[in-house]
Amino acid sequence: MRTFSIAGDGDDSSGYKTHASWPPSAGTFVADEGQTMYVWAGLGASVYEFDCGFMRFDLSALPAGQVVSSARLIMYCTYSREGATGGYSLVGDEYDFGGEPAVGADWRAPLAQASSILEPKRVNTYTAAALNDTFFNAAGRAAIAAAAGGFFGVRICLDSDVGAPITGDSAQANFSCSEHSNPEPQLEVVLSAVPIVYTPAKMRVVS
Predict the structure, then answer these.
(1) 98 partner at 20 to 30 Å CA-CA among 11, 27, 30, 207?
(2) Does the global pTM surpass 0.90?
(3) 108-150: pLDDT as tens digits
(4) Contact at 8 Å (CB) between 127 and 62?
(5) How many Å apart are CA 13 and CA 88, to the nearest integer?
(6) Nearest residue to 95 via CA among 75, 112, 117
(7) Which residues does 57 contact at the CB level (< 8 Å), separation at least 6?
(8) Where are the chain's structural domains?
(9) Within 10 Å of residue 50's Cβ, how many Cβ atoms?
């Protein structure tokens, strides 16, 4: 089992867009450069808000050619709320986050569960003031293996399967960044042995 920390100070962050339509893709991006990574979907005062979190891990110590049998994000949840809309799950995609300050290109619209490299996890299952795990699915494990020896970035958000939040409601799962006094996000990777294939030696005929 190998555990990897955030690549460096400023390699985890979050940011959001707000707009009168859902999803708020046409809105102006605002970076959250504080100690908390916000993952949020909400509607207040006729304005939608959608926040994404960004992380980058240094996998230089992970040898290439390995088979990743299990992998999970371990994050300290500071607050979680499912809201009246209900049903939102945290999902994620592979993304090469370039570090703070986050920019508009880092943001994405809600992600379908079927496109996630994380196993979708309901917002209401995250325990506040505690470490929580979120597992990678097969696609995520393959992406980690392919990034061995370099950097691996993941962007987390809420899923698109539920649809727009209802008026006055929000769903969120917030996590400590590396700048916080709480534990920083970590990536835990379990490797399985790579099978060695032997080719039968040719029989030499002596006449």
Answers:
(1) 27
(2) yes
(3) 999 999 999 999 999 999 999 999 999 999 999 999 999 999 9
(4) no
(5) 21
(6) 117
(7) 4, 5, 6, 7, 11, 151, 152, 153, 154, 187
(8) 2-192
(9) 27
